[in-house]
Specification:
The chain has helices at 82-100, 113-123, 136-140, 182-193, and strands at 10-11, 52-54, 60-62, 70-75, 103-109, 128-131, 144-146, 155-157, 160-164, 170-174. With 198 residues, it is an alpha+beta fold.
Length: 198
């Protein structure tokens, strides 16, 4: 049984708005994966859970300190892998435009701070990357699926994104996405929520 919002974007004004645009793919829900334990996802329309993580330079970034501007928080599996490089490169290509829209972009993975720094340097990325080695923030945001019945793996990262408004409220959520085209979909949604053209 498909849970509400799975494979669909969620927005506070229209909770089940279809988001099957470029950058979004439909996948089975956690309940449809045998032996997978789902972590409840954060809710659109609710306050984004606060956290502090280190960026690629070892500087602490606290979500609540970013109030007053929009935040794009995207979760990805691993630095320098093909899909993650595509996603980070596309966000980097739009970072100037997103900044003009008062939005900051942060990628989050379990990779170490040093790995993030190398990833950014190797591909000339323009986004900040946050290190979540214990996967606690990923778990809080529903971006981690534990697999307790699979001894070969602890779980997997769900490539997903949340869009947080200046008041710290989650305004839109992409529960699982494909890397290519996703950054453009985020830009279009941000423009829509801000009342501009997509």
């Amino acid at each position: 049984m498909r849970s509400p919002g799975e494979g669909r974007g969620e927005v506070s004004e229209r909770p089940l708005e279809d988001a099957r645009a470029p950058g979004t793919r439909v996948e089975p829900t956690a309940a449809e994966h045998e032996g997978v334990a789902a972590v409840p996802a954060v809710a659109v329309g609710g306050l984004a859970p606060d956290f502090t993580l280190e960026d690629q330079d070892g500087r602490p970034v606290t979500l609540s300190a970013l109030r007053g501007g929009w935040v794009v928080l995207y979760f990805y599996p691993k630095d320098a892998t093909p899909g993650c490089t595509t996603e980070a490169t596309e966000f980097s290509g739009l970072v100037g435009e997103l900044e003009r829209m008062s939005a900051k972009v942060f990628g989050v993975s379990a990779d170490a701070v040093g790995s993030h720094a190398e990833f950014i340097a190797k591909f000339g990325l323009g986004v900040d990357l946050l290190s979540d080695p214990g996967r606690e923030v990923m778990k809080t945001y529903g971006a981690w699926l534990a697999t307790p019945f699979d001894p070969q793996r602890a779980g997997r990262v769900i490539r997903s994104t949340v869009l947080i408004d200046p008041a710290g409220v989650i305004r839109y959520r992409w529960p699982e996405v494909a890397p290519q085209g996703h950054a453009a979909a985020v830009r279009e949604k941000l423009a829509e929520l801000q009342g501009g053209a997509g």
